[in-house]
Amino acid sequence: MSAGQILAAEVRPSIHEVAVRDLGRALAERLASGARYLTSAVADEGAAGGHFRLDWVFARPGAAPPEIVRTHVPAERPEYPSVVPVLPAAHWDEREAQDLFGVVPVGHPDPRRLVLPDDWPEGLHPLRRGVPLQACPPAAPHPGWAARVALGDGVVVMPVGPVHAGIIESGHFAFSLMGETILHLDVRLFWKHRGLEKALEGLPWAEAGPLLERTCVGCSASHQAAWSEAVEQVAGWDLPPRARHLRTVLLECERLWNHINDVAAVPAGTGLTVAAMEGAALKERMLRAQAAAFGHRYLFGTIRPGGTAVDLPADASARLRRELRAIRAALARLGQRMLRHPGFMDRLRGTGVLPARIAADLGAVGPAARASGLAADLRVDRPHLAYAELAPAVVQEDAGDVAARFSLRLREAEVSFELLDRLLRGLPAGPFRTEPPAGAETAGGLGVGASESPRGANVHYVELAEGRIARYRVRSASFANWPLLLQAVPGNLIGDFPLINKSFELCYACCDR
Amino acid sequence: MAQAPRGHLLRRSLQFRHVDAGSCGGCESEIAALMGPAYDAQRFGIDVVASPRHADVLTVSGPVTRQMAEALRRTHEAVGEPRLVVSVGDCAAGRCPFAGTYAAGRGVEGVLPVDAHIPGCPPSPAEILRHLRALMDRGAPGGPPVAGDEPQSARGRPAAGGTARA
Predict the structure, then answer these.
(1) Which of A50, A293, A380, A510 has the fewest other C-beta atoms within 10 Å?
(2) Complex ipTM, two decimals?
């Protein structure tokens, strides 16, 4: 094995148990010392103590394993002081756990339902043990979700969705308008909540793939990679070099088709149809190239624990490399035309500004974070797969507006094209997957897998017991970033909302699961 | 299974409204491609409309989550008669890996009457286009081929019936 390679067994998370009363302080200390919040997860430990387990997971730059701050609350009184005062980025995580487990974050500034449907009865928490996966309680009367709105003479509240006019995913927005100006935006998601995490419980880890890769079409390879990494951690399973490189190829291809999609979506939001159509044609070329190289337009079924599910023979690799070069040149030409179009850029500049301070406090990730000046990119923050050797540049912008998020994606696409060209020049010889190590089928323990999806950090928290999934939490980049969209919108014109939304281009499916 | 598609309901024009009832986004991405330059569904008289009141056909993706059921029903009611319902993708046909959880249903059948299923995970734009054209007079066998018409690979297709356990 080459120097610098991280062995799976060395990166299992470390766990530090604290009493509930010390929780806020323990989290604050972690943050003050430079650790970054990755994810959190509540689990029902049921008969083994009648407790709920609460884990907050942090990462530090470099190769060190994640650190978990853990506490327990008793089943007969499942509450704890909300951590929002010290860790505002966990605000939706706490609301989700309140819905799914009934663990109450006391003092949370927004106690509304986040996940459960309007007609779901009170007091029934689906992820608790003893609640069957197929629970189907009759519709219960419920006051329903109430939007937070601005008040005052002349304020108009305009609700939009969940069914939208275009072909986009389902979600609900409540605009508080004064004329054309948006005073306030509230969002209601989880219309697409499918119960992924409960559906995974009890499955052998090897059977989780078909569900996880369908968490979201745009982040499928990223979900497959994060799942695989978490399982490999628990099983002590190392990847051969060819597998590491192929996984990187798949992740960068996914980044590219998404960035091309987003670069085409922004002009669609301004009415510059020619650019939107040219971008759509490039996205189609990318999807066909992926189908030809890997057997699926959206890379479903390509990554699994132990390596990849598909190989890339030399002739297919050469064809892919040639096609990527052509797409790269076409995208660069299209991007330059758009950046030089004064009417188009006038719409983008100063629109939908996400201030750096808010982005940092609320834990923004991905292009939305980097366009507001934050240096957050898991490809660089933690050496894994082929990224340690490739050392991709972290692209940043400062303005935090639509123009910054747009031009950042063009620049990042360039970085991805370059990475792929290098990777495809010569994949390492050897197997593209390995058999599980002894004991993997009955492995137990906690693993945290993380991948930089096209929208940012995608973190999978995986607890295995006897080789089966005991608890699985997916905290996608979109889950992290949806609340940040709400911060970028007030003060803008309602006609610019589609443009701002498209500049974030967050996944509803990834968030809702 | 709902009644067979009514003959001659759609001749040279098919206007559809789409509802995402809990998909992974894959079907939406492929349907959106129909309106792009590679597939250009509009040259066949197919178009997406902003309101169900303007639609002939309601396309639906996803298993129909509990939370989306009411919105889906109301959108369907708003489509003027005569109307057709087309389920798009394996999830909408009840073959979703999440089918039957506390949050997700078992497809569109049972929520709405379904006139046609378009299988696939996701079905490619060419496959969606072929099925939509088959609902129109001009989509009869022998019509012009559609470019990029390769069926989606079977790789990664979920097993029939999903994985939800009793």
Answers:
(1) A50
(2) 0.94
Residues in chain A closer than 8 A to B77 (CB atoms): none
Q: Which residues in chain B (127-146) have CB-CB distances under 8 A to chain A? A: none
Domains of chain A in sequence order: 1-116 (3.30.460.80), 196-483 (1.10.645.10)
CATH placement of domain B14-136: 3.40.50.12280
| B71 inside 8 A of chain A by CB | yes
Domain ranges of chain B: 14-136
Tell me the pLDDT tens digit for each residue of B32-88. 999 999 999 999 999 999 999 999 999 999 999 999 999 999 999 999 998 999 999
**A171-184, pLDDT tens digit by residue?**
999 999 999 999 99
CA distance B8 to chain A (A): 26
Closest-CA distance of chain A to residue B131, Å: 18
Answer whether A422's CB lies under 8 Å from A409's CB. no
**Entry pTM:** 0.93
Within an 8 Å CB–CB cutoff, is residue B121 touching chain A?
yes
Per-residue CA distances from A513 to A47, A212, A374, A475, B159 (Å): 27, 9, 27, 10, 19
**A35-92 residue pLDDT tens:** 999 999 999 998 666 799 999 999 988 878 999 999 999 998 999 999 999 999 999 9
Going by the DSSP 8-state scheme, the letter that residue B139 receives in this structure is: G
